[in-house]
Amino acid sequence: MFEKEDSCCCPGDLTHAGQQAILGRQYATDWKKTFDMVFLVVMAVLMGVLIGVTTIYEPELFHETNFWKNNMIKLTVMLIVSLCGGLLCRSFCPVDSEGYITTSKASWFKVNYTRKFQHFAAYAIPLLIRTDVPGNAVLHLVWGDFFTLIGFLVLIKPFRETFSPFMLMFNSLDRPEDRPHCLKWIIAGNIWPGLLMIMFFDWVFLRFGPAQQKLVMIFVLIAGVGDGLAEPVGIYTGKHKYRTRSCGTSAVYLRSFEGSACVFLTTFIWIIWYYQSFENELQFWLCMTILPIASAIAEATSPHTMDTPFLMGLGGLIIYVLLRWY
User: Fold this and answer.
1) What is the rounded distance in angstroms from the CA atom of residue 101 to the CA atom of residue 176?
2) Which of 65, 81, 192, 319 has the most other CB atoms within 10 Å of its CB?
3) What span, in angstroms and rounded, lies between the C-alpha atoms of 266 and 277?
4) With contact defined as beta carbons under 8 Å apart, do 223 and 311 qualify?
């Protein structure tokens, strides 16, 4: 039975297993001078653009009740995932007087794990919960992504420090090594580029047919499940270590073969799961040969905080080449 870490990461302690405890006071900067303000402005502009584009090209969409109902369902699922992650975090780590988790890099429980759930939910929910209404499928997906992003927008400082459930949701992604840039790195470094990757390849794969469009889920599941399992498996069972250099930087990271094996093996599972969506046997077997090892290498060498779009971009490119030339 695991216990809450009261003895080593309680409010007020400055050390935890020899590591500096990282407290919520790192968010003391005026939010209007941080990424939170940028995020709010970008979302306001995006909403205006979406309303304008929909009014011009597909005004009848505003009267599709089921479409908006499904988008609200997507947002609700995102909020529930965040709440569950926050409750899990607080069951292991206490909070300070402002509601921020008091933790450090040495904590037994890692916020990284609950953060991965939100990554996966953000990418998968718009694809899995689709509304079958006539019109532009790309526009519909962008609206779905917009509602997904609202689930992160409510976590900016003025909202989370005013409404305690939003703070609870924020706890589930506020890992210590990202403070005070948590939202900046997860949104600008992962969610925005990841969603753009999904929208782009969803549109590209649809040109090959509705069945091939489903292949987008392969690299979404690799990034969500394979990469999500790699970290905890590597930390708690990784006995065989190796060093790798982060792509585009001089940073060197310590990885484990056990963690990398999670990405490698789960890639086979998702390719087989979507076997029927390949146009022919050659595409399937080439994907089985190339994608697992490519994904494992990509996960090991991806830049810090950008592993998800890195995995998605490489996976989408490989699948596109197979669909286009084989």
Assistant:
1) 9
2) 319
3) 18
4) yes
CB 311 within 8 A of CB 302: yes
Phi, psi of 239 (to 5 degrees): -100, -20
Give me 250's structure tokens.
């001089």
| Cβ pair 9, 102 in contact under 8 A | yes
Strands 15-16 and 19-20, by their bridges, are antiparallel
Name 47's Cβ contacts closer than 8 Å, sequence gap at least 6: 146
What phi and psi values does residue 255 have, to the nearest 5 degrees?
A: -115, 170
Q: Which residues pair with 242 in a beta bridge?
A: 255
> CA-CA distance, 256 to 105, in Å (whole number)?
18
Q: How do residues 26-38 score in pLDDT, each as one tens digit?
A: 788 899 999 999 9
Residue appearing with tokens 């040109």: 207
What are 215-237's pLDDT values in tens digits?
998 988 888 777 767 666 766 67
With a CB cutoff of 8 Å and minimum separation 6, the contacts of 306 are 189, 190, 193
Sign of the Cα torsion 165, 72, 54, 214 reads positive
**CB-CB contact of 105 with 206 (8 Å):** no
The answer to whether 259 and 296 are in contact (CB under 8 A) is: no
